[in-house]
Automatic annotation (TrEMBL):
<dbReference type="InterPro" id="IPR002818">
    <property type="entry name" value="DJ-1/PfpI"/>
</dbReference>
<dbReference type="GO" id="GO:0004462">
    <property type="term" value="F:lactoylglutathione lyase activity"/>
</dbReference>
<dbReference type="InterPro" id="IPR029062">
    <property type="entry name" value="Class_I_gatase-like"/>
</dbReference>
<feature type="domain" description="DJ-1/PfpI">
    <location>
        <begin position="204"/>
        <end position="380"/>
    </location>
</feature>
<feature type="domain" description="DJ-1/PfpI">
    <location>
        <begin position="5"/>
        <end position="189"/>
    </location>
</feature>
<protein>
    <recommendedName>
        <fullName>DJ-1/PfpI domain-containing protein</fullName>
    </recommendedName>
</protein>
<dbReference type="InterPro" id="IPR006286">
    <property type="entry name" value="C56_PfpI-like"/>
</dbReference>
<dbReference type="Pfam" id="PF01965">
    <property type="entry name" value="DJ-1_PfpI"/>
</dbReference>
<comment type="similarity">
    <text>Belongs to the peptidase C56 family.</text>
</comment>
Amino acid sequence: MAPSKKVLMLCGDYMEDYEAAVPFYSLAGLGVAVHCAAPGKAPGDPCLTAVHDFLGYELYTELPGHRFRVTADFAAAAADPSAYDALVVPGGRFVEQLSVDPEAVALVKAFAGELRRPVVLTCHSQVLLAAAGAMGGVRCTAFFSLRPVVELAGGTWVEPDPLSLCVADGHVLTAIGWPAHGEVIAQLLRALGGRVLGGRGQGVLFLCADYVDDYEANVPFRALAGVGCRVEAACPTKRKGEPCVTAIYDDVAGAVSDEKRGHNFVMTVDWAGIDVDDYECVVVPGGRSPELLVTNEKAVALVGQFAAKGKVVASIDQGHLVLAAAGLLKGKRCASGVPMRVISNLAGAAAVEPEGAVADGKLVTAASWPDLAEFIARLVDLLGITVSF
């Protein structure tokens, strides 16, 4: 069935990496079409993204992210914004350029003004609402440095406390940035007329270690939070509140991708306090993290306990290594990228798909992060969650 809702995401070089990827893959996985357009770029052209996180300095550090490909023509989208049900604008330095681009400003003004359709603004992209003259009287949050911008433009500043806060004032949805993505997704689905059934309170545990894949950990984590799941992250060697550093592996066809440092992914529960009965699902993202997890007998045993109790077990790419060690791939269909294909076969997989996401009973596997939309869709289905419009 074709998606009944269509969202436009306004993109550009040095937009925040998570703030582009999370809505793109999450919404697609939940049945919403997302078209990504950038002034001056054609469909297929890449936008360079930026990783913004606090790494021990007074201000966030900017690191290089992924190459995020545009999927739609900006001129066509700007000519007929009424073809879209909502507009999403990630944060990042690219909004400085867009704020003086008449067509980009007009597009934001159309959604915020004439069309009065949902507009999602995160981190620094709220400056576009000010540039469009549409901030007046709007309750708005953003990154802390934008408070004077909001107030100078006639808006009412809302402190981003907690950092997961998404402020919905009519059709305008604002947040400090990617830490609020779970609530942003939930509020946007609601603003689009969506109804979510089955997700409330279901527990999903993400099993991580240092150098977990940046997208593969955070994107499904936020997507599942957006449909009401209680998502937690744990590492055998870290306590609640401690971060796992993530790694970025960019999508380079026909070559081994380079590795870059990504965001911090903070653990939300202590390992010692984990009770399998508190969760319906465990997710093992890829990256180099599984090389640590597979050496920890308790981590491998924990994944095995989920399977033994008939719960959903999911992994992406190198995460399959932990499933193989737990004996969970034997006789199963799975999707494996190049790094895990031989290992999946050695572990007794009945069939190995080279791409996409596969569900076999309560087991969900995906080949790599470009398959995240399908991975999220299969997880949501197995958890009995439905999103309808």
